[in-house]
Amino acid sequence: MSSPVDPVRVWTALSLIPEGKVVTYGQLAELSGSPRSARVVGNILKQLPAGSHLPWHRVINSKGHISFPQGSSQYAKQRTRLEAEGVALVAGKINLSLYRWQGE
DNA sequence: CTGTTGACCAAAT
DNA sequence: TATTTGGCCAACA
To answer: Fewer beta carbons within 10 angstroms: which end of chain A, N or C?
Structure first.
């Protein structure tokens, strides 16, 4: 029994992530009601309009890394936004046990 | 229809 | 500890 991924639920869950906290793609998938759809969530984020106010930068992968190639403008953007809200990267990596959002 | 791809993940090697 | 492998789901050719 598989439920399709509803982009609206992803956007909603995303909007609830507090400043200074992060979630993984897999976690956002389960918060959206589709526990096995981490990759699909990534695709949905990719398709967000440029002007979106949603905190897409608070989503990282399970290793604590930003899922963009280092040196890309997107990587720089995400990193800058994270650090601006107090999320530190040590050796390019975020400490999940410290910054991961524990849900509501 | 089959095969490939991807802002992913966890287990096995 | 580092890589590879297999699984996942949706979109696309």
So the answer is: N
